[in-house]
Amino acid sequence: MYEAVIGLEVHLHLKTRTKAFCGCEAEYFGQAPNTHTCPVCLGLPGSLPVPNRKAVEFGLKLALALGSRVPERLLFHRKNYFYPDLPKNYQISQYDLPLGQGGSLPLGGRAVRIKRLHLEEDAGKSLHLEGRTLLDLNRAGSPLIELVTEPDLHTPEEARLFLQRIQALVQTLGISEASPEEGKLRADVNVSLRRPGEGLGTKVEIKNLNSFKSVQRALEYEIRRQTEILRRGERVKQATLGFEEGSGKTYPMRTKEEEADYRYFPEPDLPPVPLPRAWLQEIRASLPELPWEKEARYQGLGIKPQDAEVLAYTPALARFLDQALALGEASPQALANWLLADVAGLLRERGLALEETRLTPKALARLVALFERGEVTSRVAKTLLPELLEGQDPEALVRERGLRVVADEGALRRVVAEVLAAMPEAAESVRQGKLKALEALLGQVMRRTRGQAKPEVVRRLLLEALGVG
Length: 469
Ligand code: ADP
Ligand code: MG
Ligand code: ZN
Prior knowledge:
Blueprint: E1 3-13, H1 53-66, E2 73-74, E3 77-80, E4 90-93, E5 100-101, E6 104-107, E7 110-121, E8 125-129, E9 132-136, E10 143-149, H2 156-173, E11 185-194, E12 204-209, H3 212-231, E13 239-244, E14 249-254, E15 265-266, E16 273-274, H4 277-286, H5 291-300, H6 305-312, H7 315-326, H8 332-350, H9 361-372, H10 378-389, H11 394-401, H12 409-422, H13 424-431, H14 436-448, H15 455-466
Parallel strand pairs: 12-13
Antiparallel strand pairs: 1-10, 1-11, 2-16, 3-4, 3-15, 5-7, 6-7, 7-10, 8-9, 11-12, 13-14
C-alpha cells in the first residue's frame, strides 16, 4: 500500500480597492475588458510601481493569524518570464524573504504546517477563441497572496478541507472573497506516493485548479495513476500537469521552468518596505476572532464539537450565530440545531444563501426561545420558519394566529375523546397492546389541535383514556 503526500500552493486575491502597485481598481470580475489599466499595470516604459499599503496589511493579517514569522523589511523580486497576458514580461513577486515563513493551520486535531506566504501581482487573462487569442488586462497587477504548505496532507478530502479552511479564514479576516468561481482562490496541488515510513517520493504538480471539487477529483485521479505506475515497478516522472474537467484526467502541460529560468532579482523600482514591529502589534491586536478560536468558544458554550466546527468555519453562519447568542434568549445548542438542520435545509431547498433572506438573528433566537420555553411546539415552530425567512416576527405570528401550546388538559381530553370515538378500530388495537396504532391516534389529535398540543402530553392522555400503560 502507498500513502499519498500532498502539498498545496494557494493563490488568493486580496480585496483591496486598488491594484498592488498602481491606482487602478482591483475588482476585475465581470468588468468590461481592458477598462482597468494604466501605464503601470501595462508595463509602459517610464512608469513606476508604488506598493499598496492595504495589500501589505492584508498579507500581514494572514501571516499573523497563521503564526508565521514576518521579516523586518518587505523585499520585492522580479520573476521574469514571457507570456502574452504579462505585458511587463516579469511579475513583481517575492523570493528569498517572503512576507511570512512558517506557521500552521489547525485541521482535524493536527497542524498543517505553512512553508511560506508571499505577496505578488496577478497576470492578465488570455481568452482563446476560434484560433485567436484575446487579452484582458483588467486582472494584471491585482494583488495576490501565494500560500505554500509543507507536504502535510494525505488525502484528496483533506486537501479540499484545507482549502475550505483557508477560505473561511481569509473571509473571516476580511482580506479576500476567496471565491473560486470568480478565480479569487486558485490552487496548484503537488502529490507523490510513498510506502509509509519511507522518504518523499517524486511529485507531480497539477496547476491552476479553480474549484474545491476539481482539487479533489484531480488528486483522486493522480493518486490512482501513480499507484498503477508504482505497482508495475516503474517510476513516477516529475511533471507539471493540467486537469481536464470533462474527462476527469490529468495531462502533461509543459516542462516546468527551473527556478534559474526565472532569473529572479531584486525589483530595482521598489525600495524595501520597513515593517515596524509596532505596526505588526497594531495589526495583531485588530485581528478578529479566528475560526479555530470560535470553534473552541462554541464548544465551551456546550455546542457539540461537530456542530461547533461547521459553524465556526462557515463565516456567514458564525456571524449570524454570534448575533443570536448575544441576545441571550435561546440556548447555544438549540440555535446550532436550528441553524444547521432546519434553516440550512430550507435554504438548500430554495437555493438561497442565508444573507439573501430576511431572517434576522433576533427572529430566529425568539422562535427558538418560544420553543424552548414550551410556549410553542416544535411542529408549530418549524411551520413558522418559512415566514421568518420573509422577515416576519415569530412572536407576532404566534399571537395573531393563537398558536400557543394548548396546555389546557380539559380541552385536550375532549379532543382525545372525540378522536377515540372517531377511530374505534385503532383504539381497540391499542387496548390489545398494538402500540403502533397509538401513532395514528396521536397524529389525529395533533391535527385537530393544529400541532399546538405537546405530543408527550397527548400520548399520556390517550393512554389514560384507553386505560393502558
Ligand atoms: P518546487 O521547488 O518544485 O516548487 P517546493 O519545495 O517549492 O517545490 O514545494 C512546492 C509544493 O510541493 C509545496 O506545497 C510542498 O509542500 C510540495 N511538495 C514538495 N515535495 C513534495 C513531495 N515529494 N510530494 C508532495 N508534495 C511535495
Ligand atoms: Mg514552488
Ligand atoms: Zn494600473
